[in-house]
């Protein structure tokens, strides 16, 4: 289900103070990166991903692949940082960035 404009605005507000928990570097989307991404999304639901890629078009492509492979939705992209969201199956109130 796509995020509404109001929901994206609320998520951007919550994500403002978050630090990136996943970094995609020169090797791109490896299995380890995808596993860590899925673990972080299941734990926190709303996360920032840092992309250490210089080419803007390649960054857009990697973000699209990240969202597609993880089932997450892009909330916001600013420079080399992407804010993505995926609802957890069993949210943990101590870990979730939405339930605090």
Helix content: 40-55%
Count of individual beta strands: 4
Gyration radius (Cα, Å) is 13 Å
**Number of helices, where a helix is a run of at least 4 consecutive DSSP H or I residues:** 3
Write down the overall mean pLDDT: 93
Low-confidence spans: none
Strand content: 15-25%
Protein name: Ribosome assembly RNA-binding protein YhbY
InterPro entries: RNA-binding_CRM (IPR001890), RNA-binding_domain (IPR051925), RNA-binding_YhbY (IPR017924), YhbY-like_sf (IPR035920)
Keywords: RNA-binding
Organism: Microbulbifer flavimaris
List keywords for this structure.
RNA-binding_YhbY; globular; 3 helices; RNA-binding_CRM; 100 residues; RNA-binding_domain; Ribosome assembly RNA-binding protein YhbY; RNA-binding
What does it look like?
The mean pLDDT is 93. The two termini are 23 Å apart. The protein is built from 3 helices and 4 strands. It is of the alpha+beta class and 100 residues long. The chain is globular. This is Ribosome assembly RNA-binding protein YhbY.
